[in-house]
Amino acid sequence: MSTKGIGSMQLTERWQGALLWGAVKAAEWSLRLPTGSHFLVEQLLEHLDGAIRETEQDPETRTHLLVFGKHLKAFLMRVVRERPAAARAILRFLGTYIQDVYRRTLRQEQGMPAPSTVVIEPTDRCNLRCP
Q: What confidence category does residue 11 fall into, taking pLDDT thresholds of 50, 70 and 90?
C-alpha cells in the first residue's frame, strides 16, 4: 500500500473516531438530564448493532453478539438509573469498542495487521461500583 493510501486511511479513522467520540460524549451528557428517555444512549447501542452487522463475517458469532446486544440495552438502562457514573464508563467502553471494530475490519481488508488489546484499569473496577 502506498504512503498516501495509509495517510488517507489514518485521516479517515481519525474523523470517524472524532464523530464517534462526539456521540459518546453527547450520550454521557444526556445521562445528566432528568428525563426518563435516553435517546442518545439508545442511538449509541444501535450504532453498536450496526457495527457488528457490517463487520462480523461469521454468522454464528454475529448472532451471539447481536443477542448479547439486546440484553446489554436492558442492563445499561438499569445502570443509567442506578449508577450514572458506571453508565458513563460503560458508554466510553462501547465507544472504544465500536471504533476498534471498524479499525480492525478496515486494516484486515487491506492486508495489514490489526492487533487488539483491551485494558481494564484496577480503578475502573472500583469506579463501576461507585455512584
A: low
What distances in angstroms separate CA 110 from CA 38, 50, 57, one per listed residue?
37, 21, 16
- Tell me which long-range contacts 120-123 makes (C-beta under 8 A, separation of at least 24): none
What grid cell was written down for 5?
Answer: 493510501
Alpha-carbon distance of 38 to 62, in angstroms, equals 26
The answer to whether residues 88 and 128 touch, using CB atoms and an 8 Å cutoff, is: no
| Predicted model pTM | 0.61
Distance from the Cα of residue 86 to its chain's centroid: 15
Spatial neighbors of 98 by CB under 8 A, at least 6 apart, are 20, 44, 47, 48, 51
* Beta carbons within 8 Å of 99's beta carbon, 6+ residues apart: 16, 17, 20, 21
**Residue 35's pLDDT is what?**
65
Secondary structure of the chain: what % helix, strand, coil (to 5)? 80, 0, 20
Residue 10 cell numbers, joined? 489514518
* Domain boundaries along the sequence of the chain: 3-129
